[in-house]
Specification:
The structure is a single chain. This protein is α/β, with parallel strands linked by helices. The protein has helices at residues 8-46, 50-67, 79-92, 94-113, 125-146, 156-161, 163-171, 179-199, 209-224, 246-253, 256-280, 290-307, 317-325, 332-347, 350-353, 357-378, 384-399, 402-422, 450-457, 478-490, 515-523, and strands at 75-76, 314-315, 424-431, 436-445, 465-476, 494-498, 507-509.
Length: 524
C-alpha cells in the first residue's frame, strides 16, 4: 500500500514545519536587533573597543549556541559582567583581559565536566541578589556619565557621587561641549522605549523597546546632524585582536591575583548563567545534567572569546526571554543571529557608526534600572537579616569593587548562618496552680546549648508537666531531645513536646517509658 503525495497528514506536517521555520527566523532577527546594539554598548561600558562586543556576541552565538543543551538560553556580553570587566581592564590592562577570560573558561569547563554545577545553587539568594543589585546600580551610575557624553570615573562610588556634576553639565549650555545635546538624545531614547513598552499595539509588541528607542533617536540625530559622540568601528573587526599565548595562560595560573580575578569572573558568569537558565527553561530542574552542560558550553565560549582577547560571555536574561517569547523551540535562532550579526557588520557597518553613544548608554541605564526594580520586587518577602545581607553586598560592591563586595556578602551570609545555628532563645512559663510549665524555644538547639537548657530545666519543680514548644525551632539535635527525655525520667514529671506548627505530629511521652528515648538510643 502506497501513501498518496496528497496525504493530508503529510501536508499538515510540511505546513507546520514551514511555519515553525518562519517563527525561528523571526526570533533570530529579533535577537539580532536586541544583541547588536547592546553588544556594542556593553563593550563601550567595559572600556574596550566596540568591535570586541560584536566578536564576543558572535562567538557566544556560534560556539555556545551549538554546545548548549537549552534552546531558550542565549549568551553574549552582558552589562552586569561589563562592570567587572571594566575593573579588570583598569587593574590588569587590556592585554591581560583575554588571559583572564581564558582561565575563566577553563574553570567553568572543569566545573561542568566534574558535574559540580549544582553547588552554585547552594549560594545564599541574598548574596546573589545583592550582587545583581550592585551590578545594576553600577551600570546606572557609570552609564549616566556616558549618556551625557561625559567620561566615567574609575570607581562606582565616584560615579555615584559625581552624578550631580554630570547632570549640571547636561542641563547647562556650554559652548564647545556636547553634554546638553547628548542629554536630549538620552532622555528621548528612554522616553520612546518606555512609551513603546506601555502603549505599543499588541501586534507590534514583538519589536523590542530598546530597538525602537535606538532606531527612532538615531534617525533624529542623523536628521538634525547632532554634534555628539558616535560609535566608532574600525575598517577591520580584527584590527585590535591579539591572540593569547599558552605561556601567558600558564603564567596566569601561577599568579594568585590574576587567578583570583578569573575565579571571581567564573563564579559570577556561572551563577548568572544558571540563574538565567532556571528562569527561561522550565525543564532545567527535571533534566539532570543540563546545568553541567551549560557550564561546559559557557566555558568553551569563554575560552574562544579569551583566546582572541574579546569580552567574556554569559547567559543573558533579556535576550533569552525575547527568544522564548518569540516562539523559539530549537537552537536555530541562537546560532543564526550570530551569522546575521557578522553579515550586518561586514555589509552595513554604517548602521552602527550612525548610533550616538549616549543613546546606547541610555538603554543601559534603563536596563540597570529595571534590573534593580526587578530584584526589589523579588525580595519583598525576605526576612530582615537577609535584606541586610543583600544591602550590605550591594553597598560594598559600589564602595569597593565587584570582587570585594561579593566576598563581603559571602562572609556576612556565613556569619549569619553561624549565628542562626548557634543561637537559641528560651522562655519559661510556670502555672503553679496546675503544676504545668511551658518552655518556649526559638532558634537552633544543639549540644552546645545543653548547659543553658539544663539550667532552665533545673528551675522546674519535680512532678511537673512540662510542655516544650518547638514551633519556632529551626533545628534540634538528638542530644537536646535526649536531655529533655532524661529530665522527664529523673524528675518524675510528664513531658509534652509540641511541634505541630512545624508540620510534625503532636506527641505525648509517658513518665517512665519514653518511646522518644528508645528511638534516640536506637538511632545512636
Amino acid at each position: 500500500m502506497t501513501t498518496s503525495a496528497l496525504d493530508p497528514s503529510t501536508a499538515t506536517e510540511k505546513t507546520d514545519r514551514k511555519k515553525q521555520l518562519t517563527t525561528e527566523l523571526c526570533a533570530a532577527i529579533v535577537l539580532l536587533c536586541i544583541a547588536l546594539p547592546l553588544n556594542v554598548g556593553v563593550a563601550i561600558a567595559s572600556g574596550v573597543p566596540a568591535e570586541f562586543g560584536i566578536i564576543s556576541g558572535a562567538i557566544a552565538s556560534l560556539v555556545t549556541g551549538f554546545v548548549t543543551g537549552s534552546s531558550a538560553l542565549v549568551s553574549g556580553p552582558d552589562a552586569g559582567i561589563g562592570v567587572l570587566v571594566f575593573d579588570l581592564v583598569q587593574q590588569y590592562g587590556l592585554k591581560n583581559l583575554g588571559v583572564i577570560v581564558v582561565v575563566t573558561g577553563l574553570i567553568q569547563l572543569a566545573i561542568g565536566l566534574t558535574r559540580s554545577a549544582k553547588w552554585f545553587r547552594a549560594v545564599s539568594p541574598a548574596v546573589v541578589n545583592g550582587m545583581l543589585a550592585g551590578m545594576g546600580l553600577i551600570i546606572i551610575f557609570t552609564q549616566f556619565h556616558i549618556m551625557l557624553d561625559d567620561k566615567p570615573k574609575s570607581t562606582g562610588l565616584m560615579n555615584m557621587l559625581l552624578m550631580p556634576e554630570a547632570l549640571l553639565k547636561g542641563i547647562t549650555p556650554n559652548e564647545g561641549t556636547s553634554h546638553q545635546e547628548a542629554a536630549i538624545l538620552a532622555l528621548a531614547t528612554i522616553a520612546v522605549a518606555v512609551a513603546w513598552t506601555r502603549w505599543a499595539p499588541a501586534k507590534l509588541k514583538i519589536v523590542p523597546n530598546a530597538l525602537v528607542g535606538i532606531a527612532t533617536v538615531t534617525l533624529a540625530a542623523m536628521f538634525f546632524d547632532m554634534p555628539v559622540k558616535y560609535v566608532t568601528i574600525p575598517a577591520s573587526l580584527t584590527q585590535n585582536i591579539s591572540l593569547v599565548s599558552i605561556d601567558s595562560v600558564i603564567a596566569a595560573f601561577q599568579n594568585p591575583e590574576m587567578l583570583g580575578a578569573a575565579g571571581m569572573l567564573a563564579f559570577i558568569c556561572s551563577a548568572q548563567s544558571l540563574i538565567t537558565l532556571s528562569a527561561v527553561d522550565d525543564t532545567a530542574l527535571r533534566r539532570g545534567g543540563l546545568y553541567d552542560r551549560e557550564l561546559i558550553a559557557q566555558g568553551v565560549g569563554n575560552i574562544a572569546c579569551g583566546a582572541i582577547g574579546a569580552l567574556p560571555i554569559v547567559g543573558v536574561l533579556l535576550r533569552s526571554m525575547a527568544n522564548k517569547q518569540n516562539g523559539a523551540v530549537t537552537r536555530i535562532p541562537n546560532v543564526l543571529h550570530g551569522i546575521l550579526m557578522i553579515s550586518t557588520i561586514i555589509c552595513l557597518p554604517w548602521l552602527l557608526t550612525s548610533i550616538p553613544t549616549s543613546v546606547l548608554a541610555a538603554i543601559l541605564v534603563l536596563t540597570g534600572t529595571r534590573m534593580v526594580l526587578g530584584i526589589w520586587k523579588s525580595v519583598k518577602t525576605y526576612e530582615k537579616r537577609e535584606l541586610q545581607i543583600l544591602a550590605l553586598t550591594a553597598v560594598a560592591i559600589i564602595s569597593t569593587n565587584l570582587f570585594t563586595g561579593v566576598l563581603i556578602g559571602f562572609v556576612a551570609a556565613l556569619l549569619k548562618q553561624l549565628y542562626t545555628l548557634s543561637h537559641l532563645d528560651m522562655r519559661l512559663e510556670t502555672q503553679r496552680n496546675n503544676n504545668i510549665a511551658i518552655l518556649h524555644m526559638r532558634g537552633a538547639a544543639t549540644f552546645l546549648q545543653l548547659p543553658r537548657i539544663e539550667s532552665m530545666l533545673a528551675q522546674i519543680p519535680d512532678h511537673t508537666e512540662l510542655h516544650v514548644r518547638l514551633d519556632e525551632i529551626r533545628y534540634i539535635d538528638h542530644a537536646c531531645l535526649l536531655n529533655l527525655v532524661q529530665w522527664e525520667r529523673h524528675h518524675r514529671g510528664r513531658l509534652v513536646i509540641d511541634w505541630s506548627r512545624s508540620g510534625m505530629q503532636f506527641r505525648r511521652y509517658p513518665m517512665r517509658t519514653s518511646q522518644l528515648e528508645a528511638d534516640l538510643a536506637n538511632q545512636n
